[in-house]
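On clarity, I found the account of how folds are encoded harder to follow than it need be. For illustration, here is how one protein appears when written out as sequence plus structure tokens.
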Amino acid sequence: MKIEDKLALNKFEIDKEVHIQVEEKLCQGCDLKPCLYVCPAECYQLRENHMTFSYEGCLECGSCRLACDRQAIRWVYPRGGFGICYQYG
């Protein structure tokens, strides 16, 4: 089973309150952009030299926050009842 198939088994209760904020000005000066590579859900994407982020598919692993040496990512868990619900199987 491919990772995309496994991720499709997860259920998301999407909150309208964003639980991750990205300081775009700090991202612009970053050459390595590790968040593009460490996020298993590929929530971060580079489009036309502009970092974009979609919190709706976040797996809440925190990898992006740990990988960012510029501290440009403010990450907290979603409010109770929201976020990812992992499916096993």
